[in-house]
Amino acid sequence: MDDSGDLAKNLEFWMTNLPPKLKSVPVIHLAIPGSHDSFTSSITKKSKIAPDADNIIKKMSWLGPLLKYFMVNWSRTQSLSAREQLEKGIRYFDLRIATKRNTNDLYIVHGLYADKVQNVLDAISSFLENHPQEIVILDCQHFYAFEHADHERLMQMFNKTFGTKLLPYSDHMEYVTLEYMIIQYRYQVIAVYRSDAARFGQPMFWPNSSFPNPWPNTVSTTKLFAVLDYGLKNRKPNTSYISQCILTPSYTFIIAHLFSKYISSVNPMKACSYNI
């Protein structure tokens, strides 16, 4: 029987349907599909400019709707919602988070404001409730217009939403398997928090060093795959490794493709096998 074929037919439950021998393999040695700027599908032309936008964009804000008309094609890097991505098998998510003036809510951002973080976490939590043998990795990569109190609020949000589903940090990732997480202890969420100062004393959040994610920062597919090959060959054996199969456009590239969409202009290949 072709296990890979069976798994591909039901991506919503692909971890659930893994054979027992793979559930005993450390999670850091499984190829887990992920998405980049994961929760940007809700960005529209009406979205406000976010704190992570480049200064040149902020200075051009006087252009109003015209500026956003071009921005939205490059800011909305995903077309599927959190739930839809989970149903398609995505299990690693990249979060860029910012505060917003005149509100206590925290938001997903990528040049423009997307959905509230709480809405995204609730969607993931709902999925996990109905899929007890699936896990997710939530990578809080960047924080914009954040103060210490905002970090505390975000971590409290994670703790309140996921509770006992959060896998506590450990130095020994080589022992963390799907069997350990979902069968023995019912952990379903690995929360990576890339602000070591903010996460100090927070046992439920994983540090930057546990999930290295080198950024290729190129628009060349040749350079991209060279970086990916080198990274995979030289990764540390006892930590996770995030292989970013993404191309990053420069300003000159964006100007040359001003009327294009990000997904069509900066797409290394139809199906990339380098996720994590």
TrEMBL record:
Give the protein's recorded name: Phosphatidylinositol-specific phospholipase C X domain-containing protein
Q: PANTHER family annotated for this entry?
A: PTHR13593, SI:DKEY-266F7.9
* One Pfam family of this chain: PI-PLC-X
Q: Which GO terms describe its molecular function?
A: phosphoric diester hydrolase activity
InterPro entries in alphabetical order: PI-PLC_domain, PLC-like_Pdiesterase_TIM-brl, PLCXD1/2/3, PLipase_C_PInositol-sp_X_dom
Instruction: Give the residues annotated as coiled coil.
Output: none
Q: Residue limits of the Phosphatidylinositol-specific phospholipase C X domain?
A: 21-186
Q: Which Gene3D superfamilies match?
A: Phosphatidylinositol (PI) phosphodiesterase
Could you mention a single GO BP entry for this protein? lipid metabolic process
PROSITE patterns on file = PIPLC_X_DOMAIN
Protein origin, superkingdom: Eukaryota
